[in-house]
Design goal:
The protein has one domain: Jelly Rolls (Sandwich), CATH 2.60.120. Helix content is 0%, strand content 52%. It contains no helices and nine strands. It has a six-stranded antiparallel sheet with strand order 1-2-3-9-4-7, with no helix packed on it. Strand 1 and strand 2 form a beta hairpin.
Length: 114
Amino acid sequence: MKVNRLSDVKEYEAKGHFDMKGFRLQGFDASDAENFWVGLSYFLPGGGTTHTATPLEKVYVCVEGAITIITDDGEDTLEKLDSCYLVGGEGRSIINRTKKIASIMVIMPYPPKE
C-alpha cells in the first residue's frame, strides 16, 4: 500500500491550464501505479484550460465547488461528486465560472512511451 498525504504531495505544471494548481496524488513520481495516474486540480474563479484534445481517455470528478466542462458537442457543469468521462481524442476545455475555488480529481492513463 502507498499512502500519500495531501500535505506531502508535489505540485505539477499542466500545459494549457491557467489560474490552476495541480497536485499529483498517485502515479508518476508519487507512486508506482503502472496503468494510470491521479491528480487534484484547484481552479481559481475564471481559471481553466485551453480547448484541446489528447489521445488519452480521462475521468474528472468534481471534489468541491462547480466546474464547467466544454466539449465540441456542448457543455455541462459538474458539482460536488459529479463526474464525467471523456474518450481519447475528444476536445475539451474547463472553466470555473463561479466566484469560489473549484477542485477536480483527474484520473488518466499514462501517455504512450516514445
